[in-house]
Write a structure and sequence with these properties.
By secondary structure, the protein is of the alpha/beta class. The protein has a single domain, classed as Vaccinia Virus protein VP39 (Rossmann fold, 3-Layer(aba) Sandwich). 32% of the residues lie in helices and 17% in strands. It has a 7-stranded mixed β-sheet with strand order 3-2-1-4-5-7-6, with helices on both faces. The two termini are 12 Å apart. The N terminus is likely disordered.
């Protein structure tokens, strides 16, 4: 029997597919997605997955960054274009967002990007310790009802494996327009082994110098919600044992 919270038993919540894909988007998925998948990362039910060598993702030992839930992919492509020396991995289960990203990759011509079209925990299952130097969590699903807060990313099920794969000194950025998500982030992320670099509420209103406002942020602004930008740094504390 697989252990608790293994790929065969853990739950996934959230959108997987939206409106019908356009013909061009279907073509992007058919022609581009397979070659952009990170080697050794799969969506399967094998509880004994093997740890992968991240150098196989790009063929070298460049710094590795991660974006969790990249939406339409505009920030992901922006960071790849600004930082061609790094390797970026984006994880997103919403296939419409994946298709939008693939179109942006074609137009921008970036080559330092890999895409896993499913749960980021598939990646956590196979990455070695301390291999990531930066991670982004931008406008994650808010799950506003109190009984659903356990579904948020900023819970031990996600934060503990994230802490395991982030190197000491690695930066973790969180952007959200939900005040209660800020509260939970500030409570949970430090417990996972991160120091908060933006403890003052005055800091939360200032975006990062290399920030690209996403379509989700623009929607929040149109609807009168205020963006919050939080920055954390992985400290030297041992990562808590993951539940799986």
């Amino acid at each position: 029997m697989p252990p608790p919270n293994s790929p065969t038993t853990r739950n996934f919540y959230g959108r997987i597919k939206g409106k019908s894909l356009k013909p061009a988007q279907k073509r992007y998925l058919d022609e581009d997605l397979d070659r952009l998948r990170p080697a050794g990362v799969s969506r399967d039910d094998n509880p004994e997955r093997q740890i992968v060598d991240p150098r196989g993702f790009f063929g070298d030992d460049r710094p590795l960054w991660l974006e969790v839930g990249f939406g339409g992919g505009e920030h992901l492509v922006h960071q790849c274009a600004r930082n061609p020396e790094i390797g970026m991995i984006g994880c997103e289960p919403y296939i419409n967002g994946v298709a939008m990203l693939l179109g942006k990759i074609r137009r921008a011509g970036v080559r330092n990007l890999r895409v896993h079209p499913w749960d980021v925990r598939d990646l956590f299952d196979v990455l070695p310790d301390q291999c990531l130097s930066k991670a982004f969590l931008l406008y994650p699903d808010p799950w506003p009802k109190a009984r659903h807060h356990r579904r948020r990313f900023v819970t031990p099920d996600y934060l503990d494996p994230l802490a395991r794969v982030m190197a000491p000194g690695a930066e973790f950025r969180v952007a959200t327009d939900i005040p209660d998500y800020v509260r939970q982030t500030l409570e949970e992320v430090p417990q996972a082994g991160f120091d908060c670099l933006t403890p003052d509420p005055d800091d939360w209103a200032r975006p990062w110098s290399d920030w690209l406002s996403t379509r989700y942020e623009q929607k929040a602004l149109r609807e009168g919600r205020k963006p919050h930008y939080l920055t954390f740094r992985r400290n030297n504390a041992a990562a808590r044992p993951c539940t799986d």
